[in-house]
Amino acid sequence: xxxxxxxxxxxxxxxxxxxxxxxxxxxxxxxxxxxxxxxxxxxxxxxxxxxxxxxxxxxxxxxxxxxxxxxxxxxxxxxxxxxxxxxxxxxxxxxxxxxxxxxxxxxxxxxxxxxxxxxxxxxxxxxxxxxxxxxxxxxxxxxxxxxxxxxxxxxxxxxxxxxxxxxxxxxxxxxxxxxxxxxxxxxxxxxxxxxxxxxx
Amino acid sequence: xxxxxxxxxxxxxxxxxxxxxxxxxxxxxxxxxxxxxxxxxxxxxxxxxxxxxxxxxxxxxxxxxxxxxxxxxxxxxxxxxxxxxxxxxxxxxxxxxxxxxxxxxxxxxxxxxxxxxxxxxxxxxxxxxxxxxxxxxxxxxxxxxxxxxxxxxxxxxxxxxxxxxxxxxxxxxxxxx
Lengths: 200, 177
What we know:
The complex is a heterodimer.
Chain A: H1 2-18, E1 25-29, E2 31-40, E3 45-54, E4 61-69, E5 83-86, E6 89-92, E7 97-105, E8 113-123, E9 130-132, E10 135-144, H2 149-163, H3 167-187
Parallel strand pairs in A: 2-10
Antiparallel strand pairs in A: 1-3, 3-7, 4-6, 4-8, 5-7, 8-10
Chain B: H1 2-26, E1 34-38, E2 42-45, E3 49-50, E4 60-64, E5 67-69, E6 75-81, E7 84-85, E8 90-93, E9 111-117, E10 127-129, E11 135-140, E12 150-154, E13 169-176
Parallel strand pairs in B: 8-9
Antiparallel strand pairs in B: 2-5, 4-12, 6-11, 6-13, 7-8, 9-10, 9-12
């Protein structure tokens, strides 16, 4: 009788060991908060700290990077389009980690004030119906200072140069060289004399 | 003549400045000073899809849904959801929407509500009506499971579009500090 009880107990233990672990999906990021202390200027682009994304679940999972507004009456909500993620989507196996570059590109008409946003990775689902998108995010705060006329003009020039790159460098360079050549020719007389070497 | 020469020098100088400044302006504006909290908000969910099945308009349905903090320290859980859309129908998520038995003539149509709910807790701390903006649901301890274990959908009132269609929406729980 005791042998039977022992055998049953062993079988139960083996069965418990072999029981499949419940699959889980999840996400983790390696930054909890990012508080930008510099006042930012409209029309400029800023590199933000790199965000590490990890899959803590037991299944390969696809993620999309998101910027989402937080309900807080005292702080403004930035437009999600201001944030650029590289890569913007990724798939990680269980325990795997990837680094995501984040940039904040402020439009020239960004309103001054204090902002708050959640920047993070969200489980992506292509399923129809009700899908659940768990996300882990770094709470990010920053402020935009009012642009004065000179700052706004400089930012506009900077944005124009950025938008037209590399022509924004090539065209002024060619113009500068041509102007320099013209100036040199006006100010200096350059004589180039080529003669045949006399025979010895 | 002298004025022309000075003007030319000015143009050359401006052009050289523009060319030399271009790489700096084209790239990011420089380093940003920031205080960074190195921590690891971490969340797992019991499922990534919920099947409410076929539901009638003007009804309420409940499904299990749990989430857990897979990190070692306390973290905040925020919740939000999207509007619902079908092939030719869309419902607006409205946290103030009261449907179910309250639906009647004059009730708003094409609106619905989602509620992150703690079973057997009817106090104000036991539920959160979700909106499209992240709002705080609760703070949970490291390694602990969240207190909310149900999702309640309040279907749009009769007269709304979407009958016979699968309405799709996303419910998101976000872990942060």
